[in-house]
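[audit] Reproducing an earlier prediction to check determinism. Same input, same settings, fresh worker. If the tokens differ from the archived copy the diff job will pick it up downstream; this log only records the rerun itself.
[audit] input (313 residues):
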Amino acid sequence: MHKPVLSQLVYNAIFPRPRTNEPSTFASLITRHLVPEVRIETSTFYGTLDCIEAQYPGLDYSFPPHRMRLGRFAWHQKLFKAFDELGLTEAEIASLCRWEGTKWARDRYERDKAVQVRDTTTDNIRCATPPLPPSVYIHKYVEDSPRNHQLPDLKNEDRFPELEIISELHSREEDEEETSDDGDEMESYGVTLNQRLLQAAEARQQGADVSLDEDWEQWLKEASEHNAYTGMLHAIRSGRPLNVSLTNVPLHSPPSSSDTAADVRSHGASSASNSSRPVPMSNRRSGSTTIRSSIAARSAVDSSSNPAPEAAR
């Protein structure tokens, strides 16, 4: 089996199903279409044929600049497409392209005349600018944690006056919180004592032999021993201040009924004089606590002053 001819392979790639008006062989394709296109390109590129290079342009069909010059013609474009589809090498293309204006014709002229024809195709064309290398951007993703936050430099605190203002505001807020906490503690202690006295007073009213708070019992006992009980009742009913000094009264005893009455009156007078100012919530709660304590104290006094009816019950 013979090896297929290279020209026939190229012709079959260009004309898979040739028509009657198309070239029948590769040689007829060269004569009818390829050589006329080469002449047009030579006259367009060089102008007049008064130089050796214009007479022998030496077009190389494997050289990219020459293929670019001839690629704008229809039949040369089909020829280059067939070369690429068949995967022809440079040697195979050089052995196939042997007609007017090709590199084969120039090489023969240079060999016969012993001259060197200079190719000016790439003159006045600068080298292409090399492409920029690929750039790599590395993004550092750092976990947002309290350790990564940088604290301000306290040595240079004078440069930032707003830091001083913020510190003063924080100190004021802390002082206000401490004051409010102290008031809550005092209020909670009074509420607990008041509830204990109310429970004991209600139990005594129901007839149960329940003693009041030990501090209150001691206070009432010493008041009766010093004959200050009657004067204390008159002072409470008339609203006068109490001038009773007892030696064995505990330092942290709950407030007496006289103090309660005096506090109620002073609270009423201050509320009447300062009716335009709003009353804080802590004062309202302390006032209600004081009134409840006075009610419990009066009930305890009445029950202790009338022991006979309780015994009769």
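[audit] rerun output stored. Observation attached for the diff report: The chain has two domains: 6-113, 182-312.
[audit] end
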